[in-house]
Structure formats: structure tokens, C-alpha cells
Amino acid sequence: MSKPRSRWSAIVIAIAVTTLGCGGAPKPEGRVASSQGAIRGAAEAGAEGVPRATLHMKLAQEQREQALELMKSGENHRAELLLARAEADAELALALARESSAKADAEKVDEELEALSKQVEE
Amino acid sequence: MRRASSPMVVLIAVLPVAALACASARPPKELIEAREEYRRAEAGNAAKLVPAELHVARGALDTAERAFAEDPASQDAIDNAYIALRKIQRAEALGNAALSMQDKASFEKSIRLTQQELLTRSTSKLKNTEGALAKERDSLAKEKETSAAERAARVEAEKKAQDAMDALAKNLAVKSEARGTVITLAGGLVFATGRSAILPGAQSQLNQVADALKSQAEHHFSVEGHTDNQGSDRINDDLSLRRANAVREYLVVRGVAAAAISATGFGSSRPVGDNKTAEGRAMNRRVEIIVDKQP
What we know:
The structure holds two protein chains of two kinds. Chain A is mostly helical.
């Protein structure tokens, strides 16, 4: 009676050890998608055309690619952090694009106001 | 001896361990940067304009601090500090964007106000111009009316004057010359020889002349006295002037404007007939009334 029970225990332990041996952390599929979305969003906002944002776009893409490679070798924990870094860089690029665009918009309106003020003075 | 040396041994053993601990507790440069960046963000636009974003960044920084406290030398600590730094930078960029948007809104408001001011000015200017135009139009219309009335009056007056001159021409010698219309009164019919008093028989003719002259408003009249060459020039000059004055005064009494009529005596200096013949001398004894061409 005790032999089959110990056999089952051994199987359970073996499975647990195998799983933990594979890196422990599950594949960060959510981060893969969200980092991709962040990069796409920044690109759509024109971040690649904003000098200060370009570097962060490049970093985001590189880190994401690096993370995907690590996932292939099962290094999921490190991959997840790299994906989070990529996402943070992409989100920063998007914010920099917005900052640049808002600044340009304000400057344009300021110029219009200045031209109008000159008309008033005339 | 054995007792005294044991604390030293412990100290010697602990010091390298403590030194190693201090060395490993030194934060990664990403965390140092994140902390500095957060201090800047707290004092900048992010804290004022996008506090929620800065709060998110603060959360990331706390995570990084925890990771560092758990394992200062780990890659996790570096990665979390890197992520925190980016989130803080993001909050700052969004804060700057919010400030620009505020500026833009403020500029747009100023534009609207300025446009309103310009519009008010233009409207006021337009109203003034319209008012001035309306006045000008009224003035022109009145002028036109006046001008038409004046023209009609002038035409009427000219017609009346012409009619009067035509009527006069039936009884008196009236001719048109370069100097104007000349009405000639025969001296023998108006004055007794050597006298300057107007004969009663001539008054009817002079009345007609006065009426005709009155219809020639705005014209100037010259009364010229002439004699034949009988007698001295001094006497003839004097007589011709007295006769011219007598006619002038008569016409003034009859209503011709005194300021519009002058009198001159020419004596025998401007004969129109031959002084050798009685007929010629009779022609020379005359009073001429000239209606000047120019009013």
C-alpha cells in the first residue's frame, strides 16, 4: 500500500522540480502585448520624429527584442523586467512627443496673438 | 591576555564584513538618478499640473527602493530604478505638455478678446463712416436740390432779363458789343441843351431801362455820358459827367442797386457820328448804359 503512494509523491515532486527548474516565472505574455502596444502608440503619436523621443523609442524596441530572446531560453523573470523597461521607455517617448506637440501648438497660437496685437497697435 | 584579545578578534572579524555590506549597499546609478529626478519633478510642473502621473512615478520609485533594500546588488533593483526614472521623466514631460496647453488656452482667450476689440473698433469706425456718408449724402442731395432750384431760378432770371432787354430793344437802341450790352439814350431826348436835368418826357424810357437793369441781377452797369465837340472840352467833360450821374441817380431811385452802377463822363472823346454834320453831332450827344458781360 505504501509503495504506490510514494511513487505518486515522487512524480509530484519531479513535476514541481522541473517547473521550478525552468525558471519559475511564467512567460510574461501580458507584458509582451502591453510593451508592443506602448511602442505602437508612441510611434502613432509621431515620437520617431521628435529628437528627444527617438532614443527612447530605440531603447524600447531593443529591450523588447532582447526580452523576447530571453523568453526563448526561459529567462522569464528577467524578460518581464526588460519588457517593463521597454514599455516605460515607449511611454516616455509618447509623453515627449505630446510635450513637443503641445509646445509647438502654444508657440503657434502665441505668434498669432502677437500678429493680432500688432494690428491693434496700428 | 586571553580575555583582553577576544574583543579585538571580534572587531577584526566584523570590520571587513561591515565594509563589504556598505559597499554592496551603495545604490545603483539608476536609483540615484531616479531620486534626483523625482526631487526635480516634485518642484516642477508635474506636481502642479499632473499630480496623478507623478503619484504613479512615486509608486515606481518606491518599488525600486524596495527592490534595492531587498537585494542592493540585484539586477531587479537596477531595472526597477530604471523604470522609475522613466516614469518620473514621463510625468515631467506630461507636466510640461499640460503647461503648454494651458498657455495655448490662455493665448487663444487673448486672441478672442483682441479680435473682439478689433471688431468693436471696426464696427465703431464703420458706424462713424456710415454716419459721415449719410451726412454727406444728405448734404449732396440738398446741394443738388438747391443747385437745381438755383439753376431753375437762374434760367428764369435770365429769361426774364432777356425778355426785359427784348422789350427795351423795341423802344431803344440796344446792341451787343464786346464790352457788353449797350443801351443808348439820345442826349436830345433826355436832356435840354447844356443841361443835365432829365426831361419829364424821358422818364418813361428811363423807367423801362431801370426795370430791364433790375432784371439783370449780379451784373454791373456803367453809365457813360458823351457830348459832341461843340464847346470846350472842360465844359463837355463836366456836362457829360453830370448827365451820366443824373441818369445813374434816376436809375438808383428806380431801384437799381447803387453799388452795381457807376457813372463816367467822356466828353467828346468817343464820338460815334461825324461832328461836322448836325446828324452826326446828334448821334454823339448820348448817354450809354452798358450792361457788363461778366456778372
